[in-house]
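pinging the channel bc i need a second pair of eyes. not urgent but kinda urgent?? the chain im working w is below, pasted from the shared doc
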Amino acid sequence: MNIVWSVFKKEGLDTLRDRRAIIAMIIIPMVLFPVLFGGIGFFAIKEVRKAQEKLVRIGLVQPAPDNALIDKLKAKEGLEVSLLESGADPMKEVENSKVDAVIVFQSDFAEQLAAKGAGKMTLYYRSTGNGRILRGRIMNVVDDYRKEVRESRIRGLGYTLDFINPVQVEFEDSATEQEQIGEAIGGFIPYIFIILAFTGAMYPAIDLGAGEKERGTLETLLTSSAPLIQILMGKLLVTICSGLFAASLSLTSMAIALFSMGSMMGDFPSSIGPMLQPMNIVLFFSLLLLLTIFFASFLLALSFFAKSFKEAQSIISPLMAAILFPLLFGMMPWVKLTYVTALVPILNISLASKAIFSGNVDWGPTAIVYVSLAVLASLGFMACTRFVGRESILFRI
């Protein structure tokens, strides 16, 4: 074990000197979540608030009926109503940004309402940008007026509002808040961490295999008295730790980003608190550890197979697509953890993580996930040691 530890320390220090490994292990995990939750969230919320506070300019094409709806639009704070000529083109008015929306009333709008009919109007707007929010602010006034007219008509007939709503339904959701949030974003969490664990292990693996062959230092290492299996174990430990370190750092970064944005995101950061309980994190990282061992074994074997650092990159980089597909499939709400899906690599950890973070763990399939990942990690380690131990692979030129 002294040899394994010596190789681990030596290769670990070399990895920390590698700029590409530092970017994959530290920079990306630390920057990703603050940018994702902080930057994007900040600008998204800022734009929504801007659209909600913006003065909405509404143009009314003449002739406009003498109706209470127009009075409500004029009285509504944040809305500005102006009259347009009868021949004005509503589309051009909106396209030229002279107004945010144009309302054209049907000629018999007031008469239809007075005769207990339906008055028709057309709202012209642009749905791009914040147009949908602006439309919603206008329609809030229209909906309130529509509700008043409907209630007035029903009462005028001598009925109560229950006449048009004979069955009232109340909903009681048995799912807890943790289950709801876990179902919604539980599949997203492993999506991020598994990718970061893969990329965090990828560059150290490439450097410890193909990089060492390219630098010509592998032969020197092999001429030492250290057994090849212990040298490989040291390199594997560095690769595994690099992947887990990237994933751990990303979890810390995500937690800091979420809880530091409490005022901007409302109650959401406090709502995910139950998801990040110590036991849930331990269960998730125990799954991630087994998967990372397989990643490290597989990546290191491919790295030793390559003739150069560049060739190793070209071989390993496309494998990201093979990881993305089961992760995306696992994010689908109808895909559940069963005894069958528990046997599918990567998909099983995605589904198990969703169950863990939602607090709804079925220990039968979850145990199968642990067993299957343990078998996968063991097979990966044994395959790596046997594959790399062949001279045709070590000295492939």
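so The chain has a mean pLDDT of 78. and The radius of gyration is 31 Å. — does that match what u expected or am i reading it wrong
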